[in-house]
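Many introductory courses stop at the sequence. We go one step further.
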Amino acid sequence: MREKILVVEPDSEFQNQVADMLREAGYRVFGAGTYEEAAQYVNFFKPDVIIMELLLPDRNGVDLLVYAKEMLPGSKVIVYTSMKGSTIEKAVKKKGADGFIRKSGDIKKDLMTIFAKGEKKEAQGFKGSLEGVDIIDLIQAFSLMRRDLILHVRDVKTFKEGEIVFKNGEVVDAKTGVKRGEDAFLEIVGWEHGIFEVAPLKEEPEKTIDAPVDLLLLNVAKVQDEMKAVGTKIPKFTLKQILKNLKEEIPGFIGAMIFDYEEGAPIETETILEGKTFHASATLYGAILKSVGEAMEIVTEGKEKRDELLEVTITDQNDHILMIPLPFMSYAIFILITYEGKLSEARGAVKKYLPNILQILKEREAKSA
């Protein structure tokens, strides 16, 4: 499959020039001129590489960088900008940029530099996403190869960071937050959505773990089995109770709604302020209509297309709207949070109650059948 590249550039002529050169090189290329357009491409097409200008007409490009890294932790984001200054370069790299290239006026030369830098970075180590990767398989592989290395892991759901240290293939140390040793190891291995990066071990590590890798992984399996046993007992809630719980658990919560977009109507809502609804302002009203319209368009194209959609996120200067389609019928969950709120925390809270929501809606469908 051809690698997908998103070019984010407000100058349409320059954008087309970059895109044409990349297409000639065999890539599948999309173009966007604003933050909003780029965010939609990130959501729907999930590009492998994003080449982006920082100066965007509707939003700070750094916001797009952070959003792209949160949504697609395994993708590369290369800042290709006319802005100058070492401070800017350091700032965007700190935010997660995989490269920083200033426009020289020679697009072909700049693109060669972009991809050459990417190759050089891969040669120093490797990194990727835990999405679709079993971290236990990684640990077993490093153990079998008797590697000396540090496995850095960042959980994009909670933004926690941790590391597992290998010496001659044995896990000798692990730490995350205030945890150290086996407790830290068990927590890190339990992260499902994150970014990992491997770095060489350059000095003798402190040993906080004595158990062999096989015993460590046996303990992991035991903990996971215990969690599954607890998880099979789905507590009874109503949809209203679930939305009230989301209000308590999501920082920056403004409102939540479970929506039937085939009927075009909400079946349950919850808001933080008395009398405040999802249609309280023109900006918000427009954003909701846009999300509903996109969701309905997906539904009318059939189940195969609908299953490709994980979520729709719409952001303005005040709010984030997160729309998550449910995997059956025509339901979706809308979460509205303040601009300062973290989308990752909203997603985590929804995921926690998703089994309950699906169970309730399936029972609802069975009764109406």
